[in-house]
Design a protein that fits this description.
Elements: H1 7-10, H2 26-43, H3 50-65, H4 72-82, H5 102-111, H6 118-128, H7 151-167, H8 170-187, E1 198-199, E2 202-203, H9 209-224, H10 232-252, H11 275-292, H12 298-309, E3 312-313, E4 316-317, H13 343-361
Antiparallel strand pairs: 1-2, 3-4
Length: about 375
């Protein structure tokens, strides 16, 4: 067997200090959220795609968390993309990632009266049911034919869940829950952590950080759906899987709060931090408190968010890994560039900040 290649891990730069507990307050969270939102628009949301979808969901949830109206730029973005039927992106889909902007659009139908978006949501839903959208033996929608990725749990799963809730459609909610659980069956390892994806029917044992963020957020989304719409047995299974995953993540979290790009401490990526994953995991941990009925994951969630906030420059989250295809060996994750702003980094940070605002609003304390 070849020796492990730890050169990139050996050269990893430690993260800057994170925020202290005393630095976190509603006003400081609100301020940094505004800075991140402004930077997100400055960087640009250029197309109807997954990174933009995560940003838009983060912008909407952050506004709700801090009791502010839906930002007008978000409404303008959707109005612009959906105004012309001849160029409507929901009529031109060719990949599961293009479903992602639909989730925030559901929020806008529900909370901003944008009922004109409903035909676009119908088209997104119809596309997920086309025969060319392949599924594996569990029913999990494949990212590419022959491969199930954790990303799809959010890009499609969250959309199905929120659309089903908006329509009070138990069958549609069940479809969303089924996607989350089918992906978990394929991708959640015995240790509780999620792997990035499967290849030709086999799960590749690389416990990628952002995969764990996608998985945890998707399970949280499922558990936040109105209880009357979700089968009790499915809720129990979702809770079991989330608890198992968050427990494993808490046990592997570094003292500074930010997990490596592979969250299990693999030697080839040890010390190579990945901030977007930490932001997403923080959001899931903080949102888990009322869902699991325990604050066991509040401290690691706050630790992760405080660590991430130390890596923000003028509203831009740094050290976010670029778009990452499934790597067949751990070393592959040590060479993904992280030197440019990424929309999913902004979006996951906004989701983390929103979860922090919601936590404080519930009267919970910063850890």
């Amino acid at each position: 067997m070849a020796a492990e290649d730890t050169d990139n891990a050996r050269l990893a730069v430690p993260p800057r200090p994170g925020w202290a507990v005393e630095d976190v307050a509603p006003d400081s969270l609100r301020r940094v959220t505004s800075e991140v939102a402004a930077a997100t628009w400055r960087l640009g949301l250029r197309r109807w795609f997954w990174g933009e979808g995560v940003c838009l969901l983060g912008l909407v949830r952050a506004a709700e968390a801090f009791d502010e109206p839906v930002p007008q730029p978000v409404l303008d973005w959707y109005d612009t993309h959906l105004a012309d039927p001849s160029s409507d992106p929901t009529a031109l889909l060719d990949h599961v990632n293009e479903v992602a902007p639909g989730t925030a659009a559901v929020h806008l139908v529900t909370h901003a009266g944008r009922t004109a978006y409903r035909p676009a949501l119908d088209r997104l839903l119809d596309w997920t049911r086309r025969p060319e959208v392949t599924r594996d033996g569990t029913g999990a929608i494949e990212h590419w034919p022959g491969g199930v990725w954790a990303d799809t749990m959010v890009m499609v799963g969250a959309f199905l869940l929120r659309l089903g809730e908006e329509r009070r459609d138990r069958d549609l909610v069940a479809d969303g829950v089924a996607q989350v659980l089918a992906h978990a069956e394929v991708l959640q390892a015995d240790n509780g952590l999620f792997v990035h994806g499967s290849h030709q029917g086999a799960a590749i044992p690389c416990h990628w950080g952002r995969a764990n963020a996608w998985a945890a957020l998707a399970i949280v989304e499922a558990l936040e759906i109105d209880r009357d719409l979700v089968d009790p047995g499915a809720r129990d299974e979702l809770r079991r899987r989330l608890d198992l995953q968050l427990s494993a993540l808490a046990s592997t979290q570094p003292g500074h709060g930010i997990w490596d790009v592979l969250v299990d401490g693999h030697p080839e990526t040890s010390g190579i931090i990945e901030t977007s994953a930490a932001a997403g995991i923080a959001a899931a941990m903080l949102r888990s408190v009322p869902l699991l009925g325990t604050d066991r994951y509040a401290a690691p969630g706050w630790r992760a968010l405080r660590g991430v906030l130390g890596q923000v420059d003028d509203g831009v989250l740094t050290r976010v890994s670029a778009g990452t295809v499934l790597q067949l060996i751990p070393f592959g994750y040590s060479v993904i560039r992280d030197d440019r702003p990424q929309p999913w980094g902004q979006g996951l940070l906004l989701l983390g900040l929103a979860a922090a605002g919601e936590s404080l609003a519930r009267g919970e304390s910063v850890r």
